[in-house]
Amino acid sequence: MGDTFIRHIALLGFEKRFVPSQHYKQLKEMFPIEAGDINAENRIIPHLPAPRWFDGQRVAESRQGTLTEYFGALMSLPVKISRCPHLLDFFKVRPDDLKLPTDNQVKKPETYLVPKDSKNNSVTDITGPIILQTYRAIADFEKSSGSQMALATGDVVDVVEKSESGWWFCQTKTKRGWVPASYLEPLDSPDEAEDPEPNYEGEPYVTIKAYTAQMEDEVSLQEGETIDVIHKLLDGWWVVRKGDVTGYFPSMYLQKSGQDAAQAQRQIKSRGAPPRRSSIRNAHSIHQRSRKRLSQDTYRRNSVRFLQQRRRQARPEPQRSAREQAQTGGAKPQPAVPPRPSADLILHRCSESTKRKLASAV
């Protein structure tokens, strides 16, 4: 009987786990070449779709389709990856999969996902609950518009959507609205597990609103400047590069070249850039250690190193003169001449006829 492997995957529903399995991170560590960690051009492992948690059915079904494409791409990878024990273990049923979470403020069912053909299904076809991520407010937040939600220190909220702008749509049992991500912290750790790694190659963006730096680790830019984004952080303050200078800049004030900036301008007018964590007064965290963040010195050093390496790779080889080519590479390489064998070795290897002629000559 052959080895067990997966032939087909049908995604019927999904839920947000309070303690993720980190299978994607471990898979990249097992296959660094195929993950593009050594050379991005060699990447074949698909990107894990970014989570977006809504209570709307249409968006939930869209998320389901995206995950289906991701799993299909995993199964089409070479056998050494698609049939490796780590990937097979990820799809095994665990005891916790058969238990519904208890109704507490950390783990509680929020939304049920119905398959797309729900018109032909009964209520019994509904899958298990989607569990939203739960966060805690580290300080009081006063809302400034009707679309925002006020918070008091210690409030526990469920995050429905994490916008790249740094404004997250949250809800409690009695209210919902937009909240700055900088005012929230995970319950299990001060760090954001979903924060991506820096990309020192950078993505080109254009500033759609000028900003003057308020802190020494920020960067001032005028409207219409082109920069590279090298780290997209979930709190909405991205690390950008202008020449050899790096610094934090509000992601709300950035737009990819060629895209319509009208919607982004409306968001800026309605909410503005979210405050940074370092600017919040009287913040109280439940975690003993602080959030891990790279310093701007580290960003600059790694960025300069990357740019120097890219310039060296793009630099053409210097043209050599005809004289240099003649001296070094102009002529065809000659084969190496082996050393002359000793007289005893020649006498030992020659034929019997040659040996007799040599003996008679003596």
TrEMBL record:
Residues 314-323 have a biased composition (Basic and acidic residues). Residues 1-98 form the PX domain. Residues 284-293 have a biased composition (Basic residues). It is found in: Cytoplasm. CDD domains: SH3_p47phox_1 (cd12021), SH3_p47phox_2 (cd12022). Coiled coil: none annotated. Keywords: Cytoplasm, Phosphoprotein, Repeat, SH3 domain. InterPro entries: NADPH_Oxidase/PX-Domain (IPR051228), NCF1_C (IPR015039), NCF1_PBR/AIR (IPR032136), NCF1_SH3_1 (IPR035756), NCF1_SH3_2 (IPR035757), P47PHOX (IPR001655), PX_dom (IPR001683), PX_dom_sf (IPR036871). Residues 260-343 are annotated as: Disordered. Pfam families: NCF1_PBR_AIR (PF16621), p47_phox_C (PF08944), PX (PF00787), SH3_1 (PF00018). Residues 130-189, 200-259 form the SH3 domain. PANTHER family: NEUTROPHIL CYTOSOL FACTOR 1-RELATED, SH3 MULTIPLE DOMAIN. This is Neutrophil cytosolic factor 1. It comes from Felis catus. The lineage of its organism: Eukaryota, Metazoa, Chordata, Craniata, Vertebrata.
